[in-house]
Amino acid sequence: MAGWSASDIPDQTGRTAVVTGSNSGIGYTAARELARRGARVVLACRNEVRGTEAADRLAIEVPGTEPEFMRLDLGELDSVRRFAETYEREHDRLDLLINNAGVMALPYGRTADGFETQFGVNHLGHFALTGLLLPVLLGTPGARVVTVSSTMHSVSNIDINDLNSEGRYGRWTAYARSKTANLLFTHELARRLAAIGSDVVAAAAHPGYAATNLQTAGPNAEGRRAVERFMRIGNRYFAQSADAGALPTLYAATAPDVRPDSFTGPALLGWRGSPTKSWRAPWTLNDRAGERLWEESERLTEVAYEGLNA
């Protein structure tokens, strides 16, 4: 992995990638670099204006490519279902599903379906999306599902009895729990895929400390100007670029030696640098915890992974 960069991405000609939250930040970079290597990319974004603008910008930056925008609101399960139905109707393969979109450290709120926002968007939305797209993933040789987590997962394990943080809410604790859920989901998905002999690879990645609007969106929405300024200073002086932050995701999505249930992140203290194997909290490798989260996620989303229920 040493020195691995976007120029090391293998040829992606003939492959199709869906990248959630790809109108900006590491999601946009991931989509752009995959397109540069020949992939057909679908920008799955909540905001139609920003998503369309991103597709237009990508088409200019990568001449000859035809990026496609499709609306996807991970905080609304009906939107997730519509996206999956439309995708399967219009596409016959899915080589890369990159579950990248997310929200961070928001005040307490609920999604359209009544879930705590961070858990609902960061985990349940992607859980439902992956399950609904499972048939096309299983039908595509060598497909991969890459879910973007965070080193912040180490702050807190999930509370299986209070997944929606109804007992007590802390914005950073809830974020950490949603990122733990991302890793537990990857762990359990990889286990279930292996059990049926599938060659679909489920892996995870994290960007380290990358300068994106993820850090400032929450404070900006609440009018917490001092916090927003602090985050902007951190992005400017300490964070690596979004382009660098996307490398672990791109490595997990394309490198030939990526193993199921691997976790890739920046080499230097998990903050910045070339992609490498990343440390993860022991609770993210707990089979029983992964199984229980899976069962609850199926119940909450009403999305069943046909053929993968163990």
Structure description:
Pfam families: adh_short. GO terms for molecular function: oxidoreductase activity. Keywords: Oxidoreductase. There is one protein chain. This protein is α/β, with parallel strands linked by helices. The protein has one domain: Rossmann fold (3-Layer(aba) Sandwich). Helix content is 44%, strand content 13%. The protein is built from eleven helices and eight strands. It has an eight-stranded mixed β-sheet with strand order 3-2-1-4-5-6-7-8, with helices on both faces. Helix 6 (171-195) packs across helix 11. The longest helix is centred in the middle third of the chain and has 25 residues, at 171-195.
- Spans with pLDDT under 50 lasting ≥5 residues? 224-238
**CATH architecture identity:** 3-Layer(aba) Sandwich
CATH topology: Rossmann fold
CATH superfamily: NAD(P)-binding Rossmann-like Domain
Residue share in helices?
40-55%
What is the CATH domain class? Answer: Alpha Beta
In which order are the strands of the major sheet placed?
3-2-1-4-5-6-7-8
Characteristic key phrases:
single chain, 310 residues, alpha/beta, Rossmann fold, 44% helix, globular
Annotate the secondary structure layout.
Blueprint: E1 16-20, H1 25-36, E2 40-45, H2 48-61, E3 68-71, H3 77-90, E4 96-99, H4 117-132, H5 134-138, E5 144-148, H6 171-195, E6 201-205, H7 214-222, H8 225-237, H9 242-245, H10 247-254, E7 263-268, E8 272-277, H11 287-301
Parallel strand pairs: 1-2, 1-4, 2-3, 4-5, 5-6, 6-7
Antiparallel strand pairs: 7-8
